Amino acid sequence: MADKHRVVIIGGGPAGLTAAYELLRDGGNEKYDVTVLEATKQFGGISRTVKHDGNRMDIGGHRFFSKDDRIMQWWKEILPLQGAPSYDDKKLNRPVNLTEGGPDPEQTDRVMLKRHRLSRIFWNHHFFSYPISLSGDTIKAMGFGLTMKAGFSYLWSCVHKLPDDNLENFYINRFGRVLYSLFFEGYTEKLWGRHPREISADWGAQRVKGLSIMAVLKNAFKKLFRSTNSGNQKNVETSLIEEFWYPKLGPGQLWETVESEVTKMGGHVLTDALVTEINSGEGKIQAVTYRDSEGKETRLEGEDFISSMPLKDLLEAFDRSDNPAPQDMTDIAVGLPYRDFVTVGLLCKKLKIVNDDFINTPTLGNPPIVPDNWIYVQDPGYKVGRLQIFNNWSPYLVKDPDETVWIGLEYFTKEGDDFWNLTDEQARDFAIREMIRMQVISSKDDVIDFHRERVKKAYPAYFDTYKDIDQLIAWLDSWGNLYCVGRNGQHHYNNQDHSMATAMEAVSNIKTGRTSKKNVWSVNTEKSYHESK
Questions:
Q1: What does the angle CA 238 – CA 243 – CA 244 come to, to the nearest 5 degrees?
Q2: Which residues face 484 on adjacent strands?
Q3: Is 153 helix (H, G, I), strand (E, B) or coil?
Q4: What pLDDT sits at residue 527?
Q5: pLDDT in tens, 10-46
Q6: What highest taxon heads this organism's lineage (predicted)?
Q7: What is the dihedral of CA 239, 243, 246, 248, to 10 degrees?
Q8: Distance CA 61, CA 433 (A)
Q9: Residue 224: how many other CB atoms lie within 10 Å
Q10: Is it the case that residue 234 has pLDDT exceeding 70?
Q11: Conformational region of residue 54, where left means phi above 0, alpha means psi within -120 to 50, and beta covers everything else
């Protein structure tokens, strides 16, 4: 047999592992020699699951739902949907749409759970539905006068449109200036460290385009006439979707399983393999050089290269070779901004938040915990951006889901700033103080254990040299056998399913010989891909 077609994949996150799996499946291992180079010891990137003393943390929260049927089917192939009630389903006698012949979560780990989605907003010491809805509770919390002011502000924005040339105007056009100032302005600045007027409207077009007051009202009206389930949610904006799938042991479980399958099919997956140099010539990438944990450098040649490494790092790797990138391209890449991320996990005896709003929604815990997956902290008086309750994602993330509550506090930060540089104990104490002020817990004595996780380059940002990214994309595409995929590989705020789709498109191009890479870059730019936020 002739030599196999060599494909080198940089990055072992969702995009990189999806590409490897797609190349090797269905007999592809007879044709392709696939090597994945992962710079860290773990798979899944930001979609990994962090293990701490019997408890597991989901970094950022990952709902498994996609408007791309390929992705939904792919997930089911890796982790089949549950065919029997999970621990909390049984304990709470909770109805669940079981899959005939599916695995029993109580008997096996390789299973995908079906979860109910609930998120709320914390603002001014009140909880609001997420997304904001015009319910009696919302009007009561805001007050009649402020509600009327917000309503007239929205009507004014329907008539007097601002140019969609920055994120501030984008929000005002869809929600009115009053709701923008209450719920979007401060939270966006907390998230990105920049005022919304400094951020490109591209971010809103990608994340929020389909969501507006009218979309919320339309969805609420439809719910009066139909039940919402995974089978009829395809045309519902994703922020309004009420059911999602979730791996029993967190999102990292899926990517650890994929890595195992890739290895079984003959793929080579190397960890602690940091790509340091990109060698190019004659319009193609010739080879990459990676450094292992012992400092040894190895050159790896290939016919095609798929990269999910941050564009900044990719261009710096070009610059270490004999054929560096043009200076203007390097300047664009180096100037692309990111937002870093810190999660502080607190293992608590109980929460102070009461379940009064959900009398008919039983939950685990002693006393019962609120059923939220996420609580968005849009009150400007707090640094924490979002609160996760891991018990409600999967009871199997928590060592003792009946007696403890495992929560994750998400902080948006910048590598090297004061918050990033806090010691573990300082970060723990800061998080506890915020939870006491929010009345989530009563005192420091409620906290049994904690864990902090730092995540670099978690969110690609849409300001600074981002305005010139099209020039950089054109230069990258000039290398015929280089495919940039994934969130950081494209500097595009992709969700997990979007990152997977970019990899699938790249693999399709390699297999068919398609030279245009427009299909790879256009994932999550068309409306059908939008994951509204």
A1: 80
A2: 307
A3: helix
A4: 43
A5: 999 999 999 999 999 999 999 999 999 999 998 888 8
A6: Bacteria
A7: 150
A8: 23
A9: 6
A10: no
A11: left
Helices 251-264 and 14-24: crossing angle in degrees, nearest 10, is 30
Question: What whole-number distance in Å separates Cα of residue 503 and Cα of residue 77?
Answer: 17
Burial 114-134 (b: 16+ CB within 10 A, else e): bbebbbbbbbeeebbbbbbee
Instruction: Work out the number of other CB atoms within 10 angstroms of the CB of residue 444.
Output: 12
What's the CATH code, domain 5-45+254-336+463-529? Answer: 3.50.50.60
The fold adopted by the segment(s) 133-223 is protoporphyrinogen ix oxidase, domain 3 (1.10.3110)
Query: Is-contact 25 265, C-beta < 8 A?
Result: yes
For 63, the enclosing helix (H) or strand (E) is none
**Total residue length of the chain:** 533
As to burial, measured by CB atoms within 10 angstroms (0-12 exposed, 13-18 middle, 19+ buried), residue 391 is buried
- What's the CATH code, domain 338-460? 3.90.660.20
Through-space distance between the first and last CA atoms of the chain, rounded to whole angstroms: 50
Beta strand pairing status for 482-484 and 304-307?
parallel
Cα–Cα distance, 497 to 340 (Å, whole number):
21
Q: What are phi and psi of 216, to 5 degrees?
A: -65, -45
Both tokens assigned to 264: 């079984």
Count Cβ atoms within 10 A of the Cβ of residue 79 and give its class: 0-12 exposed, 13-18 middle, 19 or more buried: buried
Tokens matching residue 325? 């990138």
Q: How distant, in Å, are the alpha carbons of 58, 312, 319, 338 from that of 330? A: 34, 8, 8, 16
Mean pLDDT, range 436-460, rounded to an integer: 95
Backbone angles phi, psi at 346, to 5 degrees: -120, 125
Nearest C-alpha neighbor of 396 from the set 4, 55, 43: 55
Containing 252, the helix (H) or strand (E) segment is helix 251-264
The residue ranges of DSSP E strands in 27-86, in sequence order, are 32-37, 49-52, 55-58
The token duo for 285 is: 């990438």
Structure tokens at 115: 């979860």
* Pairing between β-strand 119-123 and β-strand 49-52 as defined by DSSP bridges: unpaired
| Rounded Cα gap, residues 143 and 141, in angstroms | 6
How far is residue 193's CA from residue 418's CA, in Å, rounded to a whole number?
14
Give domain limits for the chain: 5-45+254-336+463-529, 133-223, 338-460
Q: Do domains 5-45+254-336+463-529 and 338-460 have the same CATH topology?
A: no
The three-point CA angle 526-532-533 to 5° equals 140
Sequence-distant (≥ 6) Cβ neighbours of residue 78 within 8 angstroms = 254, 257, 258, 261
CA 321 remoteness from chain centre: 33
